[in-house]
């Protein structure tokens, strides 16, 4: 029975690993949340003329910019043509240092240029910058209107800044940066960003006063995109979705690029919308004055955003920006259900209640040892101690089953063809020798969810990213470069089998002989942190087996 359970566990593990590949290839996209009011297919609207069109303007001289007449009340104003450099002024870059993140804003549009995380590096060894900008695209935190001319002003005009640098310290744990735009057209914009020391969260407040454009009832939104920095080449890419993700109506919704033709809105109880990859995320969190979230495609590039509520084109809206790591404790401490940025796949989500305590225990030990490799070993010891009584009972049951095997064969030979008689005599045999044939199964079954939870805790945890152990293992989140730990794991598994009683038919025993080889090849691509856990667990199990089978007399 124990061999069958172990074999079933191995097959389950293979299915569990292969399931991620299957989902990555053939699973259908998640169902969208329908918007209360169907959004228009086009977002850019022409300026509606409330009065007869004026006389054509004279052709501009070389070097001049052609104005576009726009009626506003009784006075003719000019709305600049989008995409043309008609704004006077000089771009000022404002640097913010808050301890964990260094941000750079631009006075041009009041948008973000950089979010640098000094603690983390990419595959090339460069410090991670969460802002990934493509030439000709909008910058993160750009404001946008459903009128192209107004969008051009919001994104390209030069704002006045309250400071050119902002440094937070223990004595100055909070700071605010203000951008003010008073455009010659009469449009006014105030953008306030508040920062906290050692926090990935930024509070943002936007006020837009339309001035003469009030009657046009323009709509506004704030955007993040077209992507997110901090991407790494990972062995688990097939398990992890990178891209727009929204948490609305208590559902985590991933939006692949192929699902977006123009713009998708999500309404209802919306907690956040984000760009995320395996280790990092930038999430826009509604606070007030927000009516919906969106995913937008522009020239093949994706953006996420928040739709502002407006009254006669006037806006006062507040939101949060979380731009940082997908570290469990940090996300939980940030509130707004941001911990749902973490997704452990179908299997992992079923045991997510175990992932959290495992990660928290791992971080606790890291606070003591300062090394995640030793923390994994201590965590393995704790798990082994918790399951010690069950595994002890399991091994004793296996030992007892080995003792009664000669009697089992005798009963089977004596009652050939009479299955009922065999079962009756075997039950009496088990009662006489106080042996439970299922005694070895339950502990193994109970440990499967723990293994899957720990698998995901180590497989997807940023805590292990770039974390060294010792010697040749300089990153516990990737596979052992010299395959030492997988081979050692296979050897310990083989030795563990040699110690186990030979119970079961010859076919099962032959299959079991190949399991160490199968596991070794399976673990070659696993993160070394997970292989270390499995190897140490095997060594502890061998010690427990040796005591029961070789030393204990009962």
The class by helix and strand makeup works out as alpha+beta
Count of helix runs: 11
CATH topology of the largest domain: Beta-galactosidase, Chain A, domain 5
Q: What proportion of the residues form beta strands (DSSP E)?
A: 15-25%
Number of strands: 21
Computed CA radius of gyration, to the nearest angstrom: 31 Å
Largest sheet: 9 strands, antiparallel
Assembly form of the protein: single chain
Mean pLDDT: 78
CATH class of the largest domain: Mainly Beta
- Uncertain segments of ≥5 residues (pLDDT<50)? 1-5, 19-85
Estimate the helix proportion, in percent.
25-40%
For the biggest β-sheet, the strand order reads 8-10-11-12-21-18-17-14-15
Global morphology: elongated
Structure overview:
The chain is of the alpha+beta class. It folds into two domains: 2-21 and 352-551, no CATH class; 91-343, Beta-galactosidase, Chain A, domain 5, CATH 2.70.98. The protein is 36% helix and 24% strand. The strands form four sheets. A nine-stranded antiparallel beta sheet has the order 8-10-11-12-21-18-17-14-15, covered by helices on one side. A five-stranded mixed beta sheet has the order 6-5-4-3-9, with no helix packed on it. A hairpin with a 5-residue loop joins strand 4 and strand 5. Helix 6 (372-414) crosses helix 11 and helix 9 packs parallel to helix 11 (528-551). The two termini are 21 Å apart.
């Amino acid at each position: 029975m124990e061999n069958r359970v172990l074999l079933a566990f191995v097959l389950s593990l293979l299915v569990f690993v292969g399931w991620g590949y299957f989902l990555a290839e053939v699973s259908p996209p998640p169902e969208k949340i329908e918007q209360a009011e169907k959004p228009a297919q086009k977002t850019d609207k022409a300026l509606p003329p409330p009065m007869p069109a004026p006389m054509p303007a004279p052709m501009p001289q070389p070097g001049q910019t052609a104005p576009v007449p726009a009626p506003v009340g009784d006075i003719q104003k000019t709305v600049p043509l989008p995409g043309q450099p008609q704004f006077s002024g000089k771009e000022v870059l404002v640097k913010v240092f808050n301890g964990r993140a260094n941000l750079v804003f631009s006075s041009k549009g009041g948008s973000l240029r950089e979010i640098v995380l000094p603690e983390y590096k990419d595959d090339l060894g460069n410090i991670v910058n969460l802002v990934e900008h493509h030439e000709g695209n909008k910058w993160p935190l750009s404001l946008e209107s459903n009128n192209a001319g107004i969008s051009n002003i919001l994104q390209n005009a030069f704002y006045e800044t309250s400071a050119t640098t902002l440094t937070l310290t223990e004595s100055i744990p909070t700071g605010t940066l203000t951008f003010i735009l008073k455009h010659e057209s009469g449009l006014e914009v105030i953008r306030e960003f508040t920062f906290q020391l050692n926090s990935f969260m930024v509070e943002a407040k936007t006020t837009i006063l339309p001035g003469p454009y009030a009657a046009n009832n323009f709509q506004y939104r704030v955007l993040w995109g077209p992507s997110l920095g901090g991407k790494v080449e990972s062995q688990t890419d097939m398990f992890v979705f990178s891209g727009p993700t929204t948490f609305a109506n208590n559902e985590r919704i991933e939006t692949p690029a192929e699902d977006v033709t123009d713009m998708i809105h999500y309404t209802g109880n919306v907690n956040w919308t984000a760009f995320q990859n395996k280790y990092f995320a930038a999430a826009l969190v509604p606070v007030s004055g927000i009516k919906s979230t969106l995913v937008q495609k522009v020239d093949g590039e994706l953006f996420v955003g928040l739709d502002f509520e407006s009254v006669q084109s006037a806006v006062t809206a507040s939101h949060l920006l979380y731009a940082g790591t997908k570290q469990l404790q940090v996300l939980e401490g940030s509130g707004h259900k941001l911990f749902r940025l973490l997704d452990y796949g179908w299997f992992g989500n079923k045991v997510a209640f175990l992932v959290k305590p495992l990660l928290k225990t791992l971080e606790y030990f890291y606070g003591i040892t300062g090394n995640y490799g030793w923390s994994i070993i201590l965590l393995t010891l704790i798990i082994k101690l918790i399951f010690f009584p069950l595994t002890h009972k399991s091994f004793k049951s296996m030992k007892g089953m080995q003792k009664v095997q000669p009697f089992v064969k005798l009963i089977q030979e004596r009652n050939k063809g009479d299955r009922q008689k065999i079962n009756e005599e075997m039950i009496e045999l088990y009662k006489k020798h106080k042996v439970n044939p299922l005694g070895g199964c339950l502990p193994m079954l109970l440990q499967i969810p723990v293994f899957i939870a720990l698998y995901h805790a180590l497989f997807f945890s940023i805590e292990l990213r770039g974390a060294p152990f010792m010697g040749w293992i300089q990153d516990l989140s990737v596979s052992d470069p010299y395959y030492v730990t997988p081979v050692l794991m296979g050897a310990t598994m083989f030795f563990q089998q040699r110690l186990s009683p030979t119970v079961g038919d010859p076919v099962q025993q032959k299959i079991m002989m190949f399991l160490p080889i199968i596991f070794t090849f399976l673990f070659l691509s696993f993160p070394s942190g997970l292989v270390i856990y499995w190897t140490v667990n095997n060594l502890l199990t061998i010690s427990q087996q040796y005591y029961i089978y070789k030393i204990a007399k009962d």
